[in-house]
Design goal:
Layout (H helix, E strand, L loop, with lengths): L1 E2 H12 L3 H9 L7 E3 L2 E4 L1 H8 L6 H7 L4 E5 L12 H8 L1 E2 L4 H15 L2 E7 L2 E13 L5 E7 L20 E4 L7 H4 L11
Parallel strand pairs: 4-6
Antiparallel strand pairs: 1-3, 2-3, 4-9, 5-8, 6-7, 7-8
Helix pairs in contact: 1-2, 1-3
Length: 198
């Protein structure tokens, strides 16, 4: 059993996460449920190391199956989400995303939705993909946020779900496109995919 601090150090050493980033990911249950040990929370050593060693997204395969790109929703601190929830509950928990400017919303969300009849959509917590879906629609909520209509992803989900997809610092969303592939290593990302966590 590892303390939260020790688990965060494992994730920092392997994936470069800060302590708060690691904590947020651990709270999702990506390394199993934490157990209270005295005043702290402990995590299974094997599951933490397995999480830290998961492979990166198979970007070459993703480029073939999603040639028009993928919308990445980067889930921030304070958002309640669990990797062990049923898919429908996960999708509902993440469907509403922070506002975008009207121009950005049009270019990044609505144009791809209309032009390609759906937008490949993934959610990451601290650079780890916790959900893969297809957005089939998007609309504004009363408070100006965006509610995506999400459906389960196709076969391409195995190239990303349960894998690391680091996109660096920035906004709460990231538009990934195959033209971002810059080296042979990018196109040869590990395949077949790592089995999703059970």
């Amino acid at each position: 059993m590892l303390s939260e601090r020790a688990a965060a150090e494992v994730l920092a050493a392997r994936q470069g996460l800060g302590r708060e980033q690691a904590r947020q990911l651990l709270l999702t249950g990506a390394a199993g449920a934490g157990r209270r040990v005295g005043r702290s929370t402990g995590y299974d050593d094997v599951l933490v190391h397995d999480l830290a060693q998961r492979p990166p997204a198979a970007l070459g395969f993703l480029a073939e199956t999603c040639p028009h790109g993928v919308h990445v929703a980067r889930i921030r601190r304070g958002r309640t989400f669990r990797c062990d929830w049923p898919w429908v509950r996960q999708a509902e928990a993440l469907a509403v995303q922070p506002p975008m400017t009207p121009m950005t919303r049009a270019l990044v969300v609505h144009v791809p939705l209309v032009a390609f009849d759906g937008l490949p959509w993934v959610a990451t917590v601290s650079g780890f993909v916790v959900l893969a879906a297809v957005a089939t629609g998007a609309r504004l909520t009363e408070d100006g946020r965006i509610r995506f209509d999400l459906e389960p992803a196709g076969d391409w989900r195995e190239a990303v779900e349960g894998r690391w997809f680091h996109t660096g610092p920035g906004r709460h969303w990231f538009a990934w496109h195959p033209d971002r592939l810059t080296s042979p290593a990018d196109t040869m990302s590990a395949w077949p995919p790592h089995p999703p966590a059970s």
